[in-house]
Amino acid sequence: MKLLDKMPPPQTVQEQLRLLRGLLYGDFGIGKTTLAGQIIKAIGGKAMMVTTDSAWTVLQNDPEVADNIYRWAFDSFAQIRLMVEAHEEGIEPYASCRTLLWDTLSTSVDTMLRQTVANKKFLNQQVDPELEGYPHYRLVANALKETVNTIKKSDLHVIYTAHMREPNDNDKAKKRFAIRPNAPEASFNVVAQEANLIGWLSRENRGKEIQIQFEPTIQETAKSQIPTIQQTTYPVTQVPELIKKWIQ
Hints:
Elements: H1 2-6, E1 21-26, H2 32-43, E2 46-51, H3 63-66, E3 69-73, H4 77-89, E4 97-103, H5 105-118, H6 134-152, E5 157-165, H7 169-173, E6 180-181, H8 185-194, E7 197-203, E8 210-213, E9 223-224, E10 233-235, H9 239-247
Parallel strand pairs: 1-5, 1-7, 2-3, 2-4, 4-5
Antiparallel strand pairs: 5-6, 7-8, 7-9, 8-10
C-alpha cells in the first residue's frame, strides 16, 4: 500500500502527454538537423541541443529557430542526464525548454566507445589495444540505457539524429539486410525501443526533393506509432505540421 500511495493519480491513455520521441537518420548533409529544427519550430517553445559536429550551423539560416535553441557541445551521457534532471528540477535555462535535440546520437556513441577504450580497463580482452571489444560495447549500451531511461521519465519532446549505416557482411550472414542508424546494435536497440518515430531521410530519384520514410521494409529501418503519420514516405516539409497536429 505504501507503494500505491507514492504513485501519481491514474490517467487514461488519452489523458497522457503526447511526447515525441523521434529518431531521424540518413547520409551526411541530407537535412536531418534542418528537419529537427523545423519540428522544434512547429512544436513551439525553447529547446536544448547537444551537438557532436558543426551541423548545428544550418539552424542559423532560420532566426526563429536559432533564437529558441540553446546549444552545448557533447561531453558524455552523464552530461545529458544532468541536463534532463535540471529541466525536471526547475533549473534555468533547462526548465524553460520543451524539447531536447541530440545531434548526433551515432557520433556520441562512438565518442563514448573511444573514451572507454582509452582507459585500458579491458586491454586483455582486445584484439588490438586501440580497438574496442565486447565489454566496451556493453558498457556504452548500458550507460546509454540509463540515459534514455532518464529522458523517458521527463516531459520533454526528444529528437535524436544519426548517420546511416549500410548492412555489412556480418549483418548479411545473420540475414539482416536493412540500412539503419549508425550505432552498435545494442546501443541502437536502446533508442529504437523507446522511439515512437524512426524516419530515414533520402533524396527521391537523386533529385532535389528530400523525403522521409516511416515504413519498415527489408531494406530500410523505419516506423511510426504516431496516428497523424502513416507508415509511408513523405516530403520532409510535411512532417513538422503532422507532428504538431498530433501533439495538439
